[in-house]
Amino acid sequence: MELPPRPQLFDFNGVSMTNIFTDNWDNVQNFKARPDDILIATYPKAGTTWVSYILDLLYFGNMSPDRQTSIPVHDRVPFLEICAPPLPSGADLADKLPTTPRLIKTHLPVQFVPKSFWEQRCKVVYVARNAKDNAVSYFHFDRMNLIQPEPGDWSSYLQGFMEGKRVFGSWYDHVNGWWEKKQSYSNLHYMFYEDLIEDSEQEIDRLCSFLGLSPSPEEKERVRASVTFDSMKQNKMTNYTSVPVMNHKVSPFMRKGTTSCWATFFFSISISVCAPFIIRLIKYCECSPSPGKVGDWKNHFTVAQNEQFDEDYKKKMKNPDLKFRCEI
Ligand code: A3P
User: Fold this and answer.
1) Given 107, 140, 189, 300, the catalytic residue
2) Could you tell me if the CB of 45 is within 6 A of ligand 1?
3) Is the distance from CB of 37 to CB of 102 less than 8 angstroms?
């Protein structure tokens, strides 16, 4: 498939966008949501695929095994606003989903969400990730995804991120806008990537109680085991290796996960023998012993970039109730 040149960012009603996400605007805005639709909303790279897969397994994990081995998660959970011919648009795919409830993904800032979702009182799951790791993940994604604008070098990329000049606009406006919405719209579950890393079982329980689901302990365990980073990285239905516009040699979609540094290795085999020493070693190496990865930003930000970022962050993130963790 011959690819067009990478798209350019432009201002779209105050939000940086590319034509891939605005070309089908009228159809997206007129999308007819149904009351049992579930919208999964995120700023790009906040854990959309992870939560999409969790929800898909919770609802449809017991359906035919073929579904799990033959339909990629991005087809099971269509991306509402995407329009990249000759592929069918996300709105068309969502319209034709044969299953109920329909799980639909969006990266739209809250003010752009089609009004039928609010009118129908659809359940919405919003996932947010700390700004620093989110920026790093987005940078690598833009390197490998040929239908994203050229990212340039890390330093200018980070500057653009702080200025809101990334596809789907400002991270700061996105997470704040959705947080405000949650105050008036009770069918919105706002969750954090870091919490999911720290305690996936608890977060799956919270999701189930929001969605009104009560899976058996065995079903829950099956879901939890299927959605670990390593399982999803190996699984062709969740690792995006079938998507031709993504070059996984540049950077894999499932990029980080279980930390591979030596300190973590030592941690796992020697904890009982010399825990205090190992913990000091881990701190020294600035590695996280958690099973997922929070804090990869430390491998990318210089001290000066971090200081500038923190200064700017304070000005933009004034709501004391909305707190992110950049390490766990
Ligand atoms: P990294 O680039 O930091 O590795 P999205 O689905 O919104 O595009 O988000 C992708 C990010 O979520 C990637 O982050 C990816 O590795 C991470 N991710 C996906 N599944 C995950 C899982 N099961 N556990 C931990 N992180 C996961």
Assistant:
1) 107
2) yes
3) yes
**CATH architecture, domain defined by 10-316:** 3-Layer(aba) Sandwich (3.40)
Q: Which segments of the chain does DSSP mark as H helices, in order? A: 25-29, 48-60, 65-70, 73-76, 90-95, 115-119, 131-144, 154-162, 171-184, 193-198, 200-211, 217-226, 229-234, 262-285, 303-316
144 lines ligand 1 (CB under 6 A): no
pTM: 0.91
Q: Predicted ipTM?
A: 0.99
| Structural domain boundaries in the chain | 10-316
Give, in degrees to the nearest 5, the angle at Cα 319 between 316 and 320.
125
Ligand 1 centre to CA of 50 (Å) is 7
Distance separating alpha carbons of residues 160 and 11, to the nearest angstrom:
13
Digits of tens for pLDDT over the chain (328 positions)? 667 799 999 999 999 999 999 999 999 999 999 999 999 999 999 999 999 999 999 999 988 788 889 999 999 999 999 999 999 999 999 999 999 999 999 999 999 999 999 999 999 999 999 999 999 999 999 999 999 999 999 999 999 999 999 999 999 999 999 999 999 999 999 999 999 999 999 999 999 999 999 999 999 999 999 999 999 999 999 999 999 999 999 999 999 854 444 333 443 344 344 444 443 444 444 444 344 579 999 999 999 999 999 999 999 999 999 999 999 9
Distance 276 CA to ligand 1 centre (A): 31
Kindly give the distance from the C-alpha atom of residue 123 to the centroid of ligand 1, in angstroms, as a whole number.
23
